[in-house]
Structure of Lytic polysaccharide monooxygenase:
Amino acid sequence: MRLLTFTFLSLLTALVSGHARIKTPKPLNAPAEDPTGNAYNAPLSATGSDFPCKNLHTQSGIDKTPTESWIAGSVALFEILGHVTAGEGALAAHSGGSCQASISFDNGRSFRVLHTYHGGCPRDVPYNSNLAGPNQTFTFSVPPQAKSGPALFSWTWIAVSGNRDEFYMDCAAVEITGSGTSTLDDYPNMYVGEMNIPGQIATGECRSTAGTALVYPDPGPADRVTVSEVAGIPFKAPTKGNCFAPGGKAPVSSVVASGTAAVPSSSSSYAAPVASTPSSYVAPVPSTPSSYVAPVLSTPSSYVAPVPSSYIAPTTTITTRTTTTVPAYIASPSAPVADPNTQHTGYTHPHHRITTTTTCLSDDAAPTDTTDTYNAPAAQHGGWKKRRHRNF
């Protein structure tokens, strides 16, 4: 039991003192992997005296031969060392945190962010735990336009728990292959904080808050940002300041104006931007619900046009002369009679009697007298001078 307790305490001490570093790509001048931990895993000095890269990138005698070759336009990776397994260096995960993968083409004067990880770095670390899960490989894209040749890769990390003023940074020599010529000056500057840098970052500036996952003020576009929520760990931006390397030229967004910039509305409801549609994606419901009933057309199938109650069909005015054919005349062999309405004396003309009621229409003026007598003057009949008639 005593031996078991001693072994556990030794491991716990190693975890607390060991902190973290990356395994791949191999950092500059990294010692052999040692499960008991080593000083290489410690953060940079709070005074900024060994920023960047523990000053290893400028020291003579340090092997700067690239340990990884990345093809421009491909997917690369880094791996955090120390999974609490045999052969691995010690890792004190400090409840996880946020980290960035960056690259420098000017030997460490400035660094451009390739990918940002808000929370979940290292991965699968519960709050107030120093133990991480087995999968600590993180991928990112190498820009297709990236300058071909040697470059300096950087992994930086700010933990959720533990002491403040701890900025972790490992650098590795890599090589980019391809035909690109860009030094990625349009990419965000790597975030720098948790330490004082004369003329750049003063005491209290660019500091994280213990118990929170840092939200970087200039992380890059959504397709180069990964957000991982951890129960009980909210997100929070750093305090104000010029939170970037002195050699870099910061975009406006890299200058933190307050401690609330770029903070998700709440860690519990915040969702990471997703470049593709996830498998559980549910399309938004259209404004028209499933029970929607289309509006009825203004004229239904049984529509009957309304008819005014006092409707009177328009009268058509006939302006052409209409000739009415009357029944055949009735000849009489008898002697003339005195009635001029039935016979014409002397049979000079065919005499007739209209046996039906007729209406005579004419564009001439109407007769001035409706009494049809034999002796009626012609003017009384208007246009009917040649046909005398009587209506019964």
In short: The chain has one helix and 13 strands. Confidence is low (pLDDT under 50) at residues 1-18, 257-263, 265-301, 311-392. Residues 343 and 351 are 5 Å apart (CA to CA).
